[in-house]
Amino acid sequence: MREPLTEEKVFKDPVHDYVYVQDQTIWELINTKEFQRLRRIRQLGTTYLTFHGAEHSRFSHSLGVYEITRRIISQFERHGYPDWPTEERLVSLCAALLHDVGHGPFSHSLEEIFDTDHEVWTCHILLGDTDINKVLRQVSDDFPDQVAAVIQKTYPKPIVVSLISSQMDADRMDYLLRDAYFTGVNYGTFDLERILRVLRPYQGKIVVKESGMHAVEHYLMSRYQMYWQIYFHPVTRSSEIILRQIFRRAQELNEQGYAFRWMSGPLKQLLNNTLQLDDYLKLDEPLAQTAFAEWADESDELLSDLCRRFLHRQLYKYVTIDNPDETLLLEVTDALQAIGLNPDYHMEIDYPFDLPYDVYRPDQNNGEKREKAPILLLDSEDRISEISVKSDIVRSITGLHQGQYHLYFPEEPLRQNKALLSERMVKLFKLD
Amino acid sequence: MREPLTEEKVFKDPVHDYVYVQDQTIWELINTKEFQRLRRIRQLGTTYLTFHGAEHSRFSHSLGVYEITRRIISQFERHGYPDWPTEERLVSLCAALLHDVGHGPFSHSLEEIFDTDHEVWTCHILLGDTDINKVLRQVSDDFPDQVAAVIQKTYPKPIVVSLISSQMDADRMDYLLRDAYFTGVNYGTFDLERILRVLRPYQGKIVVKESGMHAVEHYLMSRYQMYWQIYFHPVTRSSEIILRQIFRRAQELNEQGYAFRWMSGPLKQLLNNTLQLDDYLKLDEPLAQTAFAEWADESDELLSDLCRRFLHRQLYKYVTIDNPDETLLLEVTDALQAIGLNPDYHMEIDYPFDLPYDVYRPDQNNGEKREKAPILLLDSEDRISEISVKSDIVRSITGLHQGQYHLYFPEEPLRQNKALLSERMVKLFKLD
Amino acid sequence: MREPLTEEKVFKDPVHDYVYVQDQTIWELINTKEFQRLRRIRQLGTTYLTFHGAEHSRFSHSLGVYEITRRIISQFERHGYPDWPTEERLVSLCAALLHDVGHGPFSHSLEEIFDTDHEVWTCHILLGDTDINKVLRQVSDDFPDQVAAVIQKTYPKPIVVSLISSQMDADRMDYLLRDAYFTGVNYGTFDLERILRVLRPYQGKIVVKESGMHAVEHYLMSRYQMYWQIYFHPVTRSSEIILRQIFRRAQELNEQGYAFRWMSGPLKQLLNNTLQLDDYLKLDEPLAQTAFAEWADESDELLSDLCRRFLHRQLYKYVTIDNPDETLLLEVTDALQAIGLNPDYHMEIDYPFDLPYDVYRPDQNNGEKREKAPILLLDSEDRISEISVKSDIVRSITGLHQGQYHLYFPEEPLRQNKALLSERMVKLFKLD
Amino acid sequence: MREPLTEEKVFKDPVHDYVYVQDQTIWELINTKEFQRLRRIRQLGTTYLTFHGAEHSRFSHSLGVYEITRRIISQFERHGYPDWPTEERLVSLCAALLHDVGHGPFSHSLEEIFDTDHEVWTCHILLGDTDINKVLRQVSDDFPDQVAAVIQKTYPKPIVVSLISSQMDADRMDYLLRDAYFTGVNYGTFDLERILRVLRPYQGKIVVKESGMHAVEHYLMSRYQMYWQIYFHPVTRSSEIILRQIFRRAQELNEQGYAFRWMSGPLKQLLNNTLQLDDYLKLDEPLAQTAFAEWADESDELLSDLCRRFLHRQLYKYVTIDNPDETLLLEVTDALQAIGLNPDYHMEIDYPFDLPYDVYRPDQNNGEKREKAPILLLDSEDRISEISVKSDIVRSITGLHQGQYHLYFPEEPLRQNKALLSERMVKLFKLD
Question: Of A31, A57, A290, which has the smallest distance from its Cβ to B287's Cβ?
């Protein structure tokens, strides 16, 4: 074990006021080049094209997750709760700080196109030849493995995992508050201090004192609001579609042996699916944006058009459709082709619930890869119940599915060729 | 003149809650590629390396300046003040929105190295072959010139200029509030709504009702706090030094005919001082950061070291020195050379008041290029006085100079060669 | 009609920043003694005994309801919506300002004991020999009747009534925000500015543009949280029980001809149910609290004990009970009597849903006296739908009943006589 | 010593989010009737007549001072600073909680009229036959004396005194933040968390780490703003004048043997200057307001007029005067008498700096009863300097005197008798 810092370090943070660093290990991790790289990856991907304030990076979010975890543990220690394994403090803090370190540029969008997974990269960074690995190994030889196990949810003590990954973990609590702050909406605010105060370590789990049930309800309702007003915003979806199509087109061209005017090593390897750690670490959003700026001048018109759309925020328009049945889709496809558009790129149907979010589900033992521990209440007689059993409002919103189909498409070419479209299509695309 | 929008557009803004767009011209200006480019230029340059929240762009600041200007004018119109020339509304709004459109990446630092001036570029963008020019010309043929005149402070009606450029203009009011919000400090907050309410158009100037004097005092004190705690922060100065040295070194190498491993067209022209508008518009912070990442692998060790320092935030250390006299500087220079460092790059003395800020100066008719109109109070008998005549606190802080000399240097090589340094130097560099 | 104020007046308000007064009539109404009296009536009754910040008065709430109404109307006027009858501005503003002017001290509690109704008193104040009536009559002879009609919901234009009284009226919007601010909880905050922006006058009703549905959902969820965490708080219920019992006992003693050590004219008339307007206006919370302080020394032990409990905040304890059946109640009654307590005063069963609140009900055409207009959405094709038809989350919480039975009792005498109680009663009263 | 609480208690507080109670003694003190009485004394006296939100009580302020003190001490303990005497924790917390317990209704105004001093009463309450004394004696027999010594600033360890009473003590820090919150102004906000973090116990004093100097400057500037915009507001001064005159007139009548229609025991003793502890504790603001309401019907016209003015907020008007010399005053006096007014009651000259405030004074060893310890900075080499030596801005505002003479008078009788006044007087009173 390494000594604490002789003097506490602080970071001024808009969400938590201050982030406190008390351990030499945490301080050194923050100063590694791999962690500093998170300053070049936005927390919310392309959301800044919808909410202009949302320009914050994964760097600040990672500090925030660390800080919430630190406060939870500090509270457990201050009260001396016997069910908290005090020796797990540092591994928990490191996992909290580093849980997102493997994210690449616009991760969620890229992971849909390429065979890549940020969690796998996080583990490569923890275990590979990196500065982070060097710092972690100073704690002990198997410390990098321990931190990686927490992130992979295979760590032997589930209470440590649940700090970072459960239905109400430090990760979610930070991003809801942070994304609300930077977008400027007030939906995402909930009473963090009260929730921290009612958390209890109990028999290998983190549970909530029943007196805090209303605060948890408030957290879940804030989450619901954030999903619908921020995360699923159809304009953000439009920018993600453009982004995915840029990479899809670049990959397609690459496979066809197209000679790019401009290419960089890490991008080439991404397109080839041959990324190694060193190059992965060079993939950041400035590089992606520089590529888009260069590709805006490529001779492939599809690629250059998509890149200009992204850079200059000329996104696809969307219309809401009730029922995207086969017949309708065929008709739309035919209409686009008839005016010289490419349906593979110039239209997309989006249904929000393809997304990895849900308001709240009490049990997820449904064979999914990732099961998030449910929220458990502890009553005054030490009985445990899952929150939707006790809370009418949580039960009533559990599993609530909402959302509409949206059809995305470039407006101008359709408007220019309106005369060639059927009346039904003109109405569908709202070109009147 | 063009028609208003049929439906008001809004942007959710963390500082002003909402930004309202009511004119077709404003809406189209925001959607030009030159304005969208401001999303790729940070408002506070390298400050995000000191305050991690300060990742906001000039895009959001420009919307904010527009919104404050809109609210001032809307208040003038609502009360029907006769001294407000109502026909100046649109030119004022356009100038507010576009006043920063010529900023390049890390402008303030770059302007110290290269022969470039963001205000000149702003006028090129307004008057050249750009989308912005096209939108402005739809108002009238000379409208681009009018907007440029406001920005150049040569517009015939000084009241319009003073909205955008005076001791208490929409620009400053937005950036103080916005920078305070994103850094997370509460020094910069003042009562914007009250100040807006006490502004009055009066004989070609904008003055403040005397009953609002305390609100103005509060604004000036907030400004004072922001300068000392945010804008002059010595860690931010350190990152700016690194940044300037990167460009100074690159320029030096370029002059020497050095073959860069990696170069891009716009950067090459910047280094050659031959930038044209098209390439200037391609210069953004993602491109600069991509260059730094590539140059981190250059064979020139000085350039690659500086680039790595910037990317991985391994900044120069600083110590406070009382009196940077010749003797001391010579001694420091000799000491650095003795251990193989280059004093041209590995040290820098910084005195905050070389910076283009001051707390408040009532008159600036001192031959400077830019004179900022002072803050004038209007009493109940329609007499005007400059605020420092009436306010003891403003008078007492007027012209207050504060600040210390800081010596910046790379810590590690000095620490490694500590044995070769004199005791006095060891103490100066705080290597104990 | 009377002229506007030559100069706008403002009140600094913690919730709305500033309250703007633009009409001579509104300014004079605020300065009447009957309106100033609202400074001596707390907005939340005894809630300050649970949340110490909740000391705000009905005066500030009334200004807030006025201000929200003013903003709604100002927005209607600015956009020139044809369905807003512009001539109804002043009557709407006056009704908003005065809607609560008839409230007495701790109204909700007193109205359960005495045959009194604050809305009836409001109309007496509007129509009787008062300063408010004088100011209103300066507008026109029938203006007091018009304002009273809005408050009684009999005004011929329902759109005016719905500003003040509907499922999402200015009254509710102000009190949710205000009570949240003063208690210090953040459950009650919602996006007021956005809601104001999506309100539309439409065919005699106020409807919500469908694009604002999520903001309305957020408002309803905030309301839900406020009810459960503030308005129904069991400690507040306990203080209300004490308060009601003080008045119940005083009335009982008065009927028995008890000679009070201290009595005041207005209180005597309250107890006799013979209150006239003049005396009603003298009934305020300082008078009630002075009475409690004096009655704390009365010879009637029940009355003096209750008064001391209220003054010194020695409230009844409560326990949650599942099913308050006859058998249990009889057993509790017997137990209390056995140790010399008076079950009429020393116990009370409370079920929160006896209270005049509900989360949201779309239709209330169930014969109730007061029907609150439901929230209607207006889609892009001008179709109207009630919100719970469109919003899954509103539908899922509509009519949700929640709440538990609580048994209230004085703890000390029970604890002192614990030996005399059955084991079952000791357990029920949690005396272990 | 008594045990800690088995379970921490919390109070929801709008300013500090939560107030934490961890000691049985603190919990019991809060529940005494003498402490609960503070709910019936407003923190800011008559300020609510100027800023309607300022209705908060000394109860919430006292909890706030306690909470800040608790946080300071907790930070000292967490870092294990050797200069903090850990055994002084409880006495410090009790003194913080109770420092204002002796305040009566509208204290500052009343103390100017009657021979009474809230600090003396605080000590009577701590040492007399009260519930508070009983709770304190459970700690030890001399504990009440110890707490009283802290409040009287005679406690042997000055570091304990300085927590509660110095230029930057817990009392001032709470009231600035709290008064700013409830009035709704944002002048009073400063970075409490940062200040708490830079406080250090050092050689019997509490000093500030020099790196926190700017945060202290910000605190002092906030204080300056609060004085001028809230505490010295001329409308508040007007209401205080009315209040003092009510009591002055009541005292005068009492001395003359006037038979009051209504009188209460504690008030009678106040007027007679024969108050004993029991009756003092019955003096609260509801009683004072009830008296005003009753006296509004007294036959003495002066008293009834003053009471009506206070209740219905019909305050004296004020005008600013440059130089209240003898000649002017005589002329005003004569003018008032000429139209039948009483200059002893119907006029008052007010100069704000008669008030017990000042922006900041480094040394106050000027024979005053109360010397507030100055703010000391501790540099990195453990040298101490008074802040105005290091901070230019503090030095520049130190001892700054500002403020204007105001003349207060009832407007209506002067306006009605305008014809009888000289032109000069009409102009002075602004009756045009």
Answer: A290
Question: How many Cβ contacts (< 8 angstroms) between chains B and D?
Answer: 46
Buried b (16+ CB within 10 A) or exposed e, A323-360: eeeeebeeebeebbeebebebebbbbebebeeeeebbb
Pick the CATH number of C4-231+378-397 from 3.30.2110.10, 1.10.3210.10, 3.40.109.10, 2.60.40.10: 1.10.3210.10
CATH number for the region A4-232+376-397 comes to 1.10.3210.10
Residues 6+ apart with CB under 8 A from B151: B95, B98, B99, B119, B122, B123, B126, B164
Question: Across the interface, which of A190, A393, A401 has its CB nearest the CB of C224?
Answer: A393
What's the whole-model pTM score? Answer: 0.93
Tell me the fold of B4-232+380-397: Hypothetical protein af1432 (1.10.3210)
Q: Is A404 on the interface with C (CB under 8 A)?
A: no
CATH (one of 1.20.1250.30, 3.90.230.10, 3.50.30.10, 1.10.10.60) for D234-314: 1.20.1250.30
Residue of C nearest to B7 (CA): C79
- CB pairs under 8 A, 24+ apart, for D247-253? D247/D109, D247/D110, D247/D113, D247/D114, D248/D113, D248/D345, D249/D300, D249/D302, D249/D303, D249/D306, D249/D345, D250/D295, D250/D303, D251/D113, D251/D114, D253/D300, D253/D303
Chain D contacts of B187, Cβ < 8 Å? 191, 218
- Which 8-state DSSP code applies to residue B212? G
pLDDT at A88 over 90: yes
C residues 149-168 near B, CB within 8 Å? none
Minimum CA–CA partner of A284 in chain B: B290
* Cβ contacts of A194 on chain D, cutoff 8 Å: 18
**What is the pLDDT at residue A20?**
97
Domain segments of chain B: what residues? 4-232+380-397, 250-315, 316-359+406-432
State the chains in contact with B (3 or more Cβ–Cβ pairs under 8 Å). A, C, D
**Assigned CATH topology for domain D8-232+382-397:** Hypothetical protein af1432 (1.10.3210)
Q: Are strands C17-23 and B376-378 parallel, antiparallel or unpaired?
A: unpaired
* Residue range D173-201, pLDDT digits in tens: 999 999 999 999 987 789 999 999 999 99
Inter-chain CB proximity C40 and D289 less than 8 Å = yes
Q: Are B219 and B168 in contact (CB under 8 A)?
A: yes
- Closest by Cα among A238, A182, A145 to A58: A182
pLDDT value at C274 more than 90: yes
> Which residues on chain D are in Cβ contact (under 8 Å) with B191?
185-187
Q: Chain B: nearest CA to D182, how far in angstroms? A: 16
Query: In this complex, is the C-beta atom of A51 within 8 Å of any C-beta atom belonging to chain C?
Result: no
Asked if A218 is an interface residue toward chain D (Cβ–Cβ < 8 A), one would say no
Residues of C within 8 A of B197 (CB-CB) are 10, 18
Tokens 């000093």 identify what position? D207
Q: What is the mean pLDDT of residues C41-66?
A: 97
Flag whether residue B36 sits within 8 Å of chain A, measured between CB atoms: yes
Q: What is the CATH code of the structural domain delimited by C233-315?
A: 1.20.1250.30
**CA separation (Å) from D131 to C302, D1, D35, D278?**
22, 18, 9, 12
Mean predicted confidence (pLDDT) in B265-294: 96
Tell me: the pLDDT tens digits for B346-378? 999 987 654 433 556 554 444 444 557 889 999
Task: Please tell me the distance in Å from A378's CA to the nearest CA on chain D.
Answer: 16
Domain B250-315, what architecture?
Up-down Bundle (1.20)
- Residue A55 contacts B, CB cutoff 8 Å: yes
Question: Which chain C residues are Cβ-neighbours of B193 within 8 angstroms?
Answer: 17-18
**pLDDT (mean) for D206-211:** 95
